[in-house]
Amino acid sequence: MISKGATWNSNSCRIKFARRFVSALLHMRNRNTRPGSLTIEGVRTHTQRIKIAAYLSMAQAVGSRRAWSRAVLSKHGSRARRHSRMGRSSVGLKKTRVIRSYPPGELGQAKKLRQLVPGGKTMDMCSLLEETAHYIKCLATQVKVMQTLADNFSK
Amino acid sequence: MEPNLGTIVRSISIGPNREETGLESLQFREEIHRLMTVPPENGSSFTELLQLPETQAMELLHSAHSDEVVPVPLSGEPLHGINDDHKSYLPSFNGNLTFPSNKVLIERAAKFSVFASGEHSPETSSVPSDSSANLEKVKSEPAETDSNPNSSQLLVSDPAVNIKNQRSEKRKEREKKGKGCTKKSKIEISQDAEKLPYVHVRARRGQATDSHSLAERARREKINARMKLLQELVPGCSKISGTALVLDEIINHVQSLQRQVELLSMRLATVNPRVDFNLDSLFAPESGSLADSNFHSMVSPLLWPEIPFNGNRQQHQQQWNFDALHRPLWGREEDNHTFITMENSLLNYESANSASLHSNQLKMEL
To answer: Average pLDDT, stretch B319-323?
Structure first.
C-alpha cells in the first residue's frame, strides 16, 4: 500500500486531498473526451472546472470542522449547483441577507481578508484570523499536491 | 534597652510566619519580664507612648500580616483568603494578649508600641527605596493613621475592650488594604490566574477594571495570540512589527497562493486533454503533418507547462523550450497507460519529494 511518510497529521490532509483531486480529474477527463478544448475558451472553462474541483476536494478533505470549508462546500456543492441551475437563488439570498457586524479595529485589511477567505464575511475578527491560519495551511498543501501532479504529467 | 528591642523587632520583621508567632510569644514574655522589672515612668507619658505608636503597633501586626499574604497563591477568591487569614490570625493573637492582669496587658501594649516605634524608623528609611511591599505599607499607613487617632483615645481608658474594637476596625482597613494589595501586586498573580481552568482576567496596575474593558482586553489578547500564529505561518512575517503590515503580508500571501492554484489548474487543464489528443494524433498515420498542425495550434497552451517550474514560480516567464515541447508528446502515452498506477507512485513521490522539490519554492512546512 501507500507508505505514509512523515507525521500522520500533516500527511492525512494531503493524502485525502490528493485522492479526491485525482479522482475528480479522472472523472472530468472521462467526461470531456471531445477535443473541443483546443480553443482558449475551452481551456479556460476547463481550468475553471479544475480549480473548483481542487477547492471542493480540499474542503471535503477537511470536512465540516472549519467554517471556511463549510462555506466552500455550501457554495460549490452539488445541491447548491442544482439550486442555482434551477433558478432558485435561495442560498445566495440567504447569504446576502446576513447582517455583517463590522467590529472595530483594522479596517481595510480585514475587509480584504474577508473577501479572500471563503466564508469570511460573517465572521468576527478573532475567528477570521483563526480561519485564515488554517486556510493558509490547507492552501499550501493544495499547491504542493497540484504542483507534483502537474510535474508528473508534464514529464 | 532600645537597641535590644530593635534587634528583636528586626528578627520579627524578617520572618513573619505562623511558626514565628510562637517565637514572638516567647520573646514577648522575656520582654514582659524585663519591663516588669523597670517601673513605668509616668501615666501620661505611657499613654502617649501608647497612643501614637499603638497605631504603628497595629501597623506592625498588619505589616507582618501583609508579608504573609502576598506569597500565598491567590487561587479563586483572594479577598476571602485574606479575610480568613486575618481572622484566623487575630484570635490566636487575642489569646496571647488576654493576660490575667491588666498591668501585664498595658506593659505588653507598651512593648508593642516600642516595637512599632523601632519598626517605624527602618520603614521610613526604606521608603525611598522602591520595593512594592514597602510602598504598600507606606500607602496604607496614612489610611490607618488617619482613622486610628480616634480609636487610640478609646484605648487609653480600657485597653482590654478597646483593643478588640480597634482590631475590628483594623480588620476593615485590612480588607481595604488587601484589596489594594491584590490590585497592585498583580504581575505574579495574573500569571497564576492564567493557569486556572476558567478565564479569569485580572486588572493590571494602572488599568481600568470595569467589565467592559476587561472583556475588551481579553479579546485583544486573543487576537494578538492568533496574529502571532499567523506570523509564524507566513514566511518572512516574524520580522515585521505592527499589525497593519503583518496583515498586508498575510493578504499578499493568501493572494499568491490562490494565484498559484489558478496557474496550476491551468497547467493541469492543458495537460489533461492533451493526453487524449496527442494519443489520437500519435496513433494516426499522418503523424508528421498532424504534429505540425498540432504544434502551431497548441503553441500557446503548450507554453503554459513550461512557465514556472524550471525556476521561479512567481515569474510569468514564457520559455520557448521546444525540446520540452517535444518531450511531453512522447511521454504522454506512457502517462496515459499508467495513470492509475501513477496515483500510487505519485503519492510516494510526494512524500519523497516534499522536502526537495517544494522547499525552495514554497518554504513552507506542513
So the answer is: 43
Helix (H) or strand (E) holding A136: helix A125-153
Mutant choice from A106, A143, A145 vs B, greatest count of B C-beta within 10 A: A143
Residue B262 in domain: no
Residues of chain A below pLDDT 50: 1-6
CB contacts < 8 A, A to B, total 183
Taking the CA of residue A41 and the nearest CA in chain B, the distance in Å comes to 11
Instruction: Quote the CA–CA distance of B121 and A38 in Å, as a whole number.
Output: 97
Question: Judged by CB atoms within 8 Å, which residues 19-38 of A form the interface with B?
Answer: 19, 22, 25-26, 28-29, 32-33, 35, 37-38
Contacts of B276 in chain A (CB under 8 A): 29, 33, 35
- Residue B257: pLDDT above 90? yes
The residue among A85 and B300 whose pLDDT is bigger is A85
Establish if B336 touches chain A: CB-CB under 8 angstroms: no
B233, B264, B288: which is the final residue of a domain? Answer: B233
Q: Does B273 fall in a domain?
A: no
> Which residue, B185, B173, B38, B62, is CA-closest to B116?
B62
Distances (CA, A) of A109 to A51, B40, B111, B216, B245: 25, 80, 70, 21, 9
Residue at which a domain ends, from B233, B260, B293: B233
Range of the domain at B331: 279-365
| Greater model confidence, B201 or A125 | A125
B153, B229: one domain? yes
H-only helix segments in chain B: 2-14, 18-37, 43-69, 78-97, 102-126, 132-157, 159-184, 187-194, 211-233, 243-283, 287-297, 299-306, 322-337, 339-362
Site from B226, B259, B333, B340 to mutate, A interface, most A CB atoms within 10 angstroms: B226
Residues B284, B229 share a domain:
no
Q: pTM of the prediction?
A: 0.46
Across the interface, whether the CB atoms of B366 and A10 are under 8 A apart is answered yes
Residue B83 belongs to a domain: yes
pLDDT attached to residue B167: 52
B319 in a domain, yes or no?
yes
Q: Do A113 and B254 lie within an 8 Å CB cutoff?
A: yes
* Same domain? B35 vs B112: yes
Count of the separate structural domains present in chain B: 2
What residue type is B314 in one-letter code?
Q
In a 13 Å sphere around the CA of B78, the CA atoms on its Cβ side amount to: 25
Residue A78 confidence (pLDDT): 66
- For the ranges B260-264, B278-282, B295-299, the maximum mean pLDDT occurs at B260-264
